[in-house]
Amino acid sequence: MKGERKYLVILGLLTIVLVCVQLFAPKPINWIPTYLPKDKDPFGAYVTDSLFTEFFGAPVNTSNLTVYEMADTIKPHHNLISISDEFNADEESVKVLLNKVDSGATAFISAYKFRGKLGDTLGIKTNDVYFSNLALFQDSDSSSLKIFPASNRTKSYFYKLANISFFFSVDSLHTPAYTLSTNAWNKPVTVRVPWGKGQLILNTTPLAFTNHYLLEKENHEYAAFMLSTLPEATTWWTSYYQIGRMENQSPLRYILSQESLKWAYYITLIGLLLFILFEAKRRQRIIPVIKPLANTTLEFVRTISNMYWQARDHKAIAEKKIVFFVDQVRQRYYLPHEINTVFIELLAKKSGQSLDETQKLFALIAMIQNSNSLAEQTLWELNKELEKYK
Description:
The protein is 44% helix and 16% strand. With 390 residues, the protein is an alpha/beta fold. The protein has 2 domains: 46-243, Rossmann fold (3-Layer(aba) Sandwich); 297-389, no CATH class. The strands form 3 sheets. It has a 9-stranded mixed β-sheet, with helices on both faces. Strand 10 and strand 11 form a beta hairpin. Helix 2 packs across helix 6, helix 12 (341-351) packs across helix 13 and helix 13 packs antiparallel against helix 14. The longest helix is centred in the first third of the chain and has 23 residues, at 2-24.
């Protein structure tokens, strides 16, 4: 008992050490792009949010709702920002977006790909630098983004990871677009699309607005120019199209959202844990194993059959087998009680056996029933025919 207690103490101490190491160890850097305005990880957008606040003199309003859900919030003179890997808004959200822009709002949307209703409506398509063979002959790991109107000082350098997508099709018949910046291969990466009284600023370099790239001094100018395309007005930034609603999906989310219910839940869990710890010891004596009663039916059958066999009463054995066979047939096929021609014909049809085989079997049965005694060979033949018929 003392030896077991020693191992339990060692195991408990190791568990405590492991928990402490996990709690106080430095958190690994999160390299997943979130583009969240308050995220200080490399691919968050905390620096961009600070630039917006500096430009407009007021904090940017953040949200995790769709454009459709923000229909009553966005006013005709407001700005709307969305930065994501892919912009694929539903039809109702695109309808609200274009109506707000048509009334005078400005939308800044940065994404590698524009899918769904917005791309179809504006007639815009994007392509990948690597899949279009533009990067095959470039030795450098970085590529530049040039701002228009072009000048010697309006060139920023980015890693290719931040500059892999560009616009290769803009349907000018429906949406006249103006290029605001291009990549190293002179392909448009930012376009301005006038729409009614407002405008859409579409960009294909979302990583250019993350903390990792904006901490490099030479990249500030590009981000500053992009932000300057928005008028000075109330600005809404939705992160829905990158990370969704970020709501707690736990079934206990309501209980955990209420302070009193949350503490009641925690106290209940702690109480159950303490109850398990203190009541875990077995108090009752060992319950003996009671063997179930043996099934003696098979032994009884063997005993009776041996009695008949030792007495050489083959006819009695045959009659028992015939009675058992006929009873099985009646229960399975619901046949009449009397064995006659109708009985034999119905049995042949229902069982799928031939009429000749069925007649042969019942002829043998009739012969056995009408005889006074039975040879051993005939008993074996009967058993063979019955097994064959089954």
